[in-house]
Amino acid sequence: MRVRFWGTRGSIATPGPDTVHFGGNTSCVEVTTNDGGHLILDCGTGARRLASDLMSRDENPLNVNILVGHTHWDHIQGFPFFSPLFVPGNSVAIYGPQGGRRSLHNVLAGQMEFNYFPVELNQLPAAITYNDLREGIHTIGGLRIAAQYLNHPAMTLGYRLEGDGVVVVYLVDHEPFSDRLWRADAEPGHIASILHDGDRRHANFMAGADLVIHDAQYSPEEYPAKKTWGHSTYDYAVRMSAAAGVRCLALTHHDPDHNDHFVTEIENRARTLAAQCGTGLDVFCAYEGCELMVEPVKTLTPFVAPASGQPTVLHQKFRVLVVDDQPDMLA
Ligand SMILES: [Zn+2]
Ligand SMILES: [Zn+2]
Predict the structure, then answer these.
(1) Are residues 74 and 217 in contact, defined by beta-carbon separation less than 8 angstroms?
(2) Which residues surround ligand 2, an ion (CB under 5 A)?
(3) Domain coordinates of the chain in residue numbers?
(4) What fold characterizes domain 2-320?
């Protein structure tokens, strides 16, 4: 399974010289299965460049599945610019959480209403299906996909993708349920020691994953002023992932006020914390163009981390470390 980041910014697109490394486009991740299936996680502004890339691949017709975690702007603004929608014969199946005041179809149509956009949703020539999802197990694009609600001001789903012998979990946007992570009477670092039922459930959802992609918008210092806005810190994402036995953690949904230097600081602090946790968790801050091959391999390949404080080269490939056994699947 191949995972590529096309948008790693949260809240609003932030192009410019200060964000050139980690990127200014909002949430969009491309997942390609080993048999060539296309699955897209969120459709923020990063989806525009992904769409151009897909169109250049000479695949005709294109069949694409899009899963949006929720319909806040930064997760759907790329949808009207997703060029495969403008080609007759292509098929796009879009999935998102049920339970808001309006259906997924109505929300996406509202964004393309003539006051906001020159082409209305019902004018798009591709075959589009709209699927309102609830929590539970679904089969989409040949993958077994578990969906579970996150803690966010809008109805939001996290997705656990199981296929090609690996597990990839997408948890954006999400806020800790509790200020305190561990029970006072238990040893920190284990799922069973997590104080709040919601946080424990969240950790169980990512248990044993090869790759977790997690919201880490705020530094721990910033978080108290941004409470209830629905986002996490690197500290929470690292501690939860380590307790859940995750192999590799990609931090994303970078705050629009965080320049490349600040995000690099977060990455360094996250790596130090992960090392202290002692579970072998690899962690990095996702950047536009970052591509990962998530494979079940027999032998562990050393994770090549970019040098501390040095910008990594765009399109550098990471390898996610995985064990030889088939990962545990969510019951
Ligand atoms: Zn967001
Ligand atoms: Zn949101």
Answers:
(1) no
(2) 72, 173
(3) 2-320
(4) Metallo-beta-lactamase; Chain A (3.60.15)
